[in-house]
Amino acid sequence: MVKHIHRFDTAINRWIISFFGRSAKSRFEAITLLGSPWVLLGIAIAIVGVGLYVLNNALVLSGMLIPATLMASAATKILIGRSRPISEYAKNMKTLSFPSGHSSGAVITYGLLAMILFTLADFPWNWVSLVLGGGIPLLIGISRVYLGAHFASDVLAGWLLGLAVLLYVIEFVRPLA
């Protein structure tokens, strides 16, 4: 199983580097910042603040699930114990690799924002919000692999964790119902 995961990670990494080329590093360094915990927590605080202001407990809970997802990702990293790729970018990182917190946090955060904006915005901006809500986490995940911060399987697991929480919010929390 480990051999298959390694083959998958290597193939995806090679494809990303060949597709985007070596000159995209500065762009991906900027993109990866959109998934940093501080940015995601800032958005979570804003969502919780709006929920408190409009007295919407479901919106408050939805915003609180962003840091909860980041904490679940951090706890899983400790349980799995997978080291980061050997790369210049990751050499000074002190955290473990699996799953990608940037990826899980990006899916729940930008997905939640997209859901809110899709509900509240008029056409075409509601559809633009959906495209960005999916596109930003996709690019953040690609940036993590491109930069050498994560293996592709770390990013895939992060996306799945974030998606699971987002689906929970959509189906059960229903912040805008």
What is the radius of gyration?
17 Å
- Which structural class do you get from the secondary structure elements? mainly alpha
How helix-rich are the residues, as a percent range?
over 70%
How many separate domains? Answer: 1
The pLDDT mean sits at 95
Would you list the SSEs in sequence order as H and E? Answer: HHHHHHH
% residues in beta strands: under 5%
- Classified in CATH, the superfamily is Phosphatidic acid phosphatase type 2/haloperoxidase
Q: Please report the number of helical segments.
A: 7
- What's the CATH first level? Mainly Alpha
Q: Find the CATH topology.
A: Vanadium-containing Chloroperoxidase, domain 1
Separation of the first and last Cα atoms: 43 Å
CATH architecture: Up-down Bundle
Residue runs with pLDDT of under 50 for 5 or more positions: none
Largest sheet: none
Kindly describe this structure.
By secondary structure, this protein is mostly helical. It has one domain (2-173): Vanadium-containing Chloroperoxidase, domain 1 (Up-down Bundle), CATH 1.20.144.10. The chain is 76% helix and 0% strand. The chain has seven helices and no strands.
Keywords:
Vanadium-containing Chloroperoxidase, domain 1, mainly alpha, single chain
Give the helix/strand layout.
Blueprint: H1 2-20, H2 25-33, H3 37-53, H4 57-80, H5 101-120, H6 125-147, H7 152-173
Helix pairs in contact: 2-6, 3-4, 3-5, 4-5, 4-7, 5-6, 5-7, 6-7
